Automatic annotation (TrEMBL):
InterPro entries per the UniProt record, alphabetical: AtLOH3-like (IPR055298), HATC_C_dom (IPR008906), RNaseH-like_sf (IPR012337)
SUPFAM superfamilies noted in UniProt: Ribonuclease H-like
The name this protein goes by in its record: HAT C-terminal dimerisation domain-containing protein
MF GO annotations: protein dimerization activity
Signal peptide: none
Domain HAT C-terminal dimerisation: residue ranges: 190-260
Highest taxon of source: Eukaryota
Length: 285
């Protein structure tokens, strides 16, 4: 921890994490505005790339200044780099200390971050997420992109809809567009609100194809972090020791685990009494 290399890596990671923090925080929100998230992806890539191209000298200066302040030895960047392999030391005649820090650490770390962003948010994924915003209530109040919804279904979910359903989709969407004028629709904020409202008002039965698209979009982890948390909770609950748990018991167990804030308000005595009243017991609790 008192080596120059450790301090250099810590400063490097601090800057990278700072530039990607807005995107990370946005993706952890309970319900995500996907279109704005895609803009954050683009800006994060640009900032990290700019850091790679223009801020090497600034990083080195910052690291050296910190090391001098706390009396950590600063290496000569023009000297030959000597690698430590186990207990042995191996000298690279063609590599300098600057080459080691700039190429082997600085470029490698940043390129890995950029590659990770490209893998997770490639053009195919960005198009999918951008099209899925067409049914976000916040966007529906200003514009209704029927073409985008039809394209989303035809390109990304062809196996979830029959051919005749795809043909019927546009007409049903045109009818669905008129419910945006209803007063209660104006209170909807996120996609899950729209889904619940469609079920509550039984409009899910009137617009079944639209409702199916909404539920499909909700399965995208980036559209709502809550969905992702549910799958994570399942991995915690159904362990190797509980691999024979039946579906009904698993569902009830997950409900209590996920809604733990509500479950903590339950009175234990009332739960015991309700359980006891379900049927006669051999002994009293």
């Amino acid at each position: 921890m008192t080596s120059f290399e450790f301090v250099f890596i810590m400063h490097l990671m601090e800057i990278i994490l700072d530039k990607s923090n807005e995107l990370c925080q946005a993706l952890q929100q309970q319900s995500q505005d996907i279109l704005n998230a895609m803009h954050l992806v683009s800006s994060t890539k640009s900032l990290i790339q700019k850091f790679r191209d223009d801020e090497w000298e600034k990083l080195v200066t910052r690291t050296k200044s910190f090391c001098e302040t706390v009396n950590i030895l600063v290496p000569d960047f023009n000297a030959q780099y000597i690698a430590r392999i186990g207990r042995a030391r191996h000298q690279h005649d063609k590599f300098t200390m600057e080459h080691h820090y700039k190429v082997d650490i600085f470029y490698v770390v940043i390129d890995t971050q950029l590659q990770e962003l490209d893998n997770r948010f490639n053009d195919h994924t960005v198009e999918l997420l951008s099209l899925s915003t067409a049914l976000d209530p916040r966007h529906l109040r200003t514009s209704f992109r029927i073409d985008d919804i039809c394209k989303l279904v035809e390109k990304f979910y062809p196996k979830d809809f029959q051919e005749y359903e795809m043909m019927k989709m546009r007409t049903q969407l045109e009818h669905f567009g008129y419910i945006r004028q209803l007063p209660e629709f104006q209170n909807l904020i996120i996609l899950s609100d729209l889904c619940q409202w469609l079920v509550k008002t039984r409009k899910s039965e009137v617009y079944p194809l639209v409702f199916r698209v909404v539920t499909i979009i909700l399965t995208l982890p980036v559209s709502t972090a809550t969905t992702e948390r549910y799958f994570s909770a399942m991995n915690i609950i159904k362990t190797m020791m509980r691999n024979k748990m039946e579906d009904d018991f698993l569902s009830n167990y997950l409900l209590v685990y996920i809604e733990k804030r509500i479950a903590n308000k339950f009175d234990i005595d009332s739960l015991i009494k309700d359980f006891q009243d379900m049927k006669e017991r051999r002994s009293q609790f």
